[in-house]
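pinned: reference chain
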Amino acid sequence: MGDQLTLQLSPAKKAAYRQRGISAVQLLFKKHFQSFAEQYEEKYAMVYGHFRIERITEVVEKFILCGDYSQGIARIQCTNPECKYEYFRPFSCKSFYFCPSCSQKRTLLFSEYMTDRLLLSLPHRQFVFTFPKILRPYFRHNRRLFSEISRLIFALMQNFYDKASKKNIKTGMVLAYQSSGEFLKKLARDGTQEGAVQ
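pinned: its structure tokens
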């Protein structure tokens, strides 16, 4: 058959965990957040709303130290007796909604919990409620209004299902807000059968 073409392959390298170091976002917060927090009430609160800066500062401080080896580590070792590969992993900050890495993990765990343990095996419907622009400043300046509107939307949906079915139906909802940028939306998922309303 003649000469065959052969290709030399180098052996596969063992994967190794690389210390990620400080991210650009962590560096940005480390350098500038303190001055921003000190000026927030005076310069930004009237435009962006009043927030609990003390609470936000706690979360930012944890985020800045996320993945820092000097804050503690976990030793991870493969349980395969032939492998026994091990490495050290720094502790995370577990800052939900703030740290991109920790928030993503927690979001995935929450989704898994809802799918496996919370939601019934029924079709679900998603509703998106968009707030008129004229009302958005009220929510920006009074975050407690979110809980009030949640109760109102739940009562509205419960009343709709009761009237549509001509009987009392137990309704469950998972409510989430998107309030970033110019958008202020209310997302509601419930255990009904079909469709979407906007």
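why pinned: The chain has five helices and six strands. Helices lie at 24-48, 53-64, 100-118, 136-141, 145-165.
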